[in-house]
Amino acid sequence: MAAQRAPRVVLGVGGGIAAYKVCELLRRLTESGHHVRVVPTRDALRFVGEPTWAALSGQPVATEVWQDVHEVPHVRLGQQADLVFVAPATADLLARAAHGMADDLLTNTLLTARCPVVFAPAMHTEMWEHPATQQNVATLRARGAIVLEPATGRLTGADTGKGRLPEPAELFDVARRVLARGTLAADLTGRHVVVSAGGTREALDPVRFLGNRSSGRQGYALAATAVARGARVTLVSANVALPAPAGADVIPVTSAVEMREAVLAAAADADAVVMAAAVADFRPDTKAAGKIKKTGGPPPTITLVENPDILAELSRNRPRKDQVIVGFAAETENAVAYGRDKLQRKGCDLIVVNQVGEGIAFGTPDNEAVVLDRDGRAVEIPRGPKENLADRVWDLVVERLGSVSKTPDTGR
């Protein structure tokens, strides 16, 4: 049997200070068996030199179409690639790519590529938010490119804000997921999706809370797979100790009331909302001002009040009829029966039913489920990595969204 060919990746490097972080991405790609050709811009070499890229990739490095002309690199690299991944994608590089410029080897490669193309932008916040940059991003997304949302954090100098290149490990995860989909279309391109993840906490006093055992892993897997399928992703995250998925906008919350506010605001222009978070049904009616202490007498009585039903409210007050709403049901017994009842009561389109317990679902790297839809269908998803379940859920969401063309999402 012939050996399987190593996936071919063209790693485009833009001229930004974040180029140094791409060395780690390159190392992860090569050490996991990928054949990587680094194609930097001229300015990228001001930050990281050609010898570094050549040594880490084990391949020649070129910036101009005039090098190794007999191999026609400006055509061959794009034709032969399984993935073109550009990081950091500067404002200038995004503009040149959006307008079809071909003034160096990287922009020529982008024009000849017929494989998935991912841009990981990095720049100052003002540059990212400028209408010209946003229009260029919308243009690239409309053509099927995956343009990640930048991370929020420390930028060059003392500045902090949105525009930071995501961490190399998270970028590698995006590359891995996109390559796993092969030539499948980025079928969520131009779509805005909202995902909730984690478990809410309801304060009893300044140091104690009522909570649950959700780790947020399934919600984060849903966010990461949606990014790899081209979506703009808003992730509402409740008390999760996981690295933020590259390319997703993360909104941290604590309680069910905070989650409701964040989800409803984000859902206003969303094509789909997936409520994977474990939201507390009840909260204490009051929060003690100080730590509740033992007194030697009877324990204190805690009165609970009902939290808002976010899933039912979303289903009831959709901004448009074609918005897809997905719920989750974590059950310890009679899971499918309880799931059907919840689907009917909440009014959502799909519900993902999990059997939970010790060593099952919560906090584990794998999961299994039955997805019920309002038309009566039941889809069984066998036990496997949580990203597999996430991809199957998005398959079902895409079916419901249909093939109607979508105006590019500018993220504004």
Automatic annotation (TrEMBL):
The keyword Transmembrane does not apply. Its cofactor is FMN; Mg(2+). Pathway: Cofactor biosynthesis; coenzyme A biosynthesis; CoA from (R)-pantothenate: step 2/5; Cofactor biosynthesis; coenzyme A biosynthesis; CoA from (R)-pantothenate: step 3/5. GO terms for biological process: coenzyme A biosynthetic process; pantothenate catabolic process. Residues 193-412 are annotated as: Phosphopantothenate--cysteine ligase. GO terms for molecular function: FMN binding; metal ion binding; phosphopantothenate--cysteine ligase activity; phosphopantothenoylcysteine decarboxylase activity. Residues 1-192 are annotated as: Phosphopantothenoylcysteine decarboxylase. Its EC number is 4.1.1.36, 6.3.2.5. Transmembrane segments: none annotated. CTP binds at residues 281, 291, 308-311, 328, 342, 346. Residues 188-399 form the DNA/pantothenate metabolism flavoprotein C-terminal domain. HAMAP family: CoaBC (MF_02225). PANTHER family: HOMO-OLIGOMERIC FLAVIN CONTAINING CYS DECARBOXYLASE FAMILY (PTHR14359), PHOSPHOPANTOTHENOYLCYSTEINE DECARBOXYLASE (PTHR14359:SF6). This is Coenzyme A biosynthesis bifunctional protein CoaBC. It comes from Thermobifida fusca TM51. The gene is coaBC.
